[in-house]
Design a protein that fits this description.
This protein is α/β, with parallel strands linked by helices. It is built from 10 helices and 15 strands. It binds threonylcarbamoyladenylate and magnesium ion (MG).
Length: 316
């Protein structure tokens, strides 16, 4: 069973041995291993039960260190990196050979980011290798935003969980790549498109697809609770049943007759809603209800990423 604690030295010792450690980030918890050690990377796929065609994000604590394993940053990539790192932004950049093919599922580009969490930055600063880390959940299930979430599902498979409290942002990083010079969003996430466009101008949004080999994390059915999960209109949500768990965006549809409910943000604040999304989904999944019904968020800012996760949870 995993030890849970905030001992960066112990986490480091396990990683030096090639073992895996769950790490806190501002987005979600990661399942981390030495990105330059193919055996460690392989065990990430095994522990997560993840198909090997779904590539991993590599985490580091400085742009200089990232320069050791990517061939370079374009001007726009560097602008984004300097503006938003550490933070919920992942960049797709051309990789050097030191990054094992297993990390990128054979692609020429590697996904990289500098996470914004004091414990994990401290850990990374004491390692001479970057950390490959997917979200620390079994493949297809809801991403973890606390050490307890990781413990519940991967506790028996890893030696250590570095506990950094609740993830502040609460949804995964926004993934940005480039086609020629145009920034392309491959995954909506914790950094809003509007903020990205302020720095690099108009971006292109990659349409979702179930069979897109470029970014398998875009698989349609993903982030899903175990219970049947449905997106409902506001009219439909007026139907009251004790067999239903309700995930409400804000307080406006709340009534005392709804016995099993979670509200993402009473006031409809998008950041607060994103922060609560995965924890609330997990809680509803554990309640004595037959189905979960959810309401969409408004389609702007982090609402786009929230709706993306809701749609994919509903796609089975
Ligand atoms: O916020 C996050 O990004 C979290 C924390 C732990 O950093 N990590 C995360 O990793 O969400 P994961 O493995 O759950 O999602 C990684 C996704 C892949 O499914 C894929 O869509 C994309 O990142 N990706 C990774 N490497 C890629 C590559 N070389 N080319 C295209 N897409 C890539
Ligand atoms: Mg994931």
């Amino acid at each position: 069973m995993a030890i849970v604690g905030n001992d960066v030295q112990l986490a480091r010792a396990f990683l030096l041995e090639g073992k895996l450690v769950a790490i806190p980030t501002e987005t979600v918890y990661g399942l981390a291993g030495n990105a330059l050690n193919p055996a460690s990377v392989l065990s990430i796929f095994e522990v997560k039960n993840r198909p090997s065609f779904d590539p991993l994000i590599v985490h580091s604590d400085s742009i200089e260190k990232i320069g050791e394993f990517v061939t370079g940053f374009s001007a726009k990539a560097l602008d984004l990196a300097k503006t938003f790192w550490p933070g919920p932004l992942t960049l797709l950049l051309p990789k050097k050979n030191v990054i094992p093919d297993l990390v990128t599922s054979g692609l020429d580009q590697v996904a990289v980011r500098i996470p914004d969490h004091v414990l994990t930055l401290n850990l990374l600063s004491q390692l001479d290798f970057p950390l490959a880390a997917p979200s620390a959940n079994p493949f297809g299930y809801i991403s973890p935003t606390s050490a307890a979430h990781v413990m519940a599902q991967l506790g028996e498979k890893i030696p250590y969980i570095l506990d950094g409290g609740e993830s502040g942002v609460g949804i995964e990083s926004t993934i940005v790549g480039f086609e020629n010079e145009t920034p392309v969003i491959y995954r909506l996430g914790g950094l809003a498109i509007e903020d990205i466009e302020k720095v690099v101008g108009k971006v292109r949004l990659m349409p979702h697809s179930t069979s897109n080999p470029q970014a398998p994390g875009m698989l349609k059915s993903h982030y899903a609770p175990r219970k049947p999960f449905f997106l409902k209109s506001r009219e439909e949500l007026l139907h009251i049943s004790d067999n239903i768990g309700y995930l409400l965006f804000d307080g406006s549809l709340d009534r005392k007759e709804l016995h099993h409910k979670r509200i993402l943000s009473q006031t409809g604040d998008l950041k607060e809603a994103a922060h609560h999304l995965f924890a609330h989904l997990r809680e509803l999944d554990l309640l004595a209800v037959d189905e979960i019904w959810a309401e969409r968020a408004p389609d702007h800012g982090l609402g786009l990423a929230i709706n993306d996760r809701l749609h994919r949870a509903a796609a089975l």
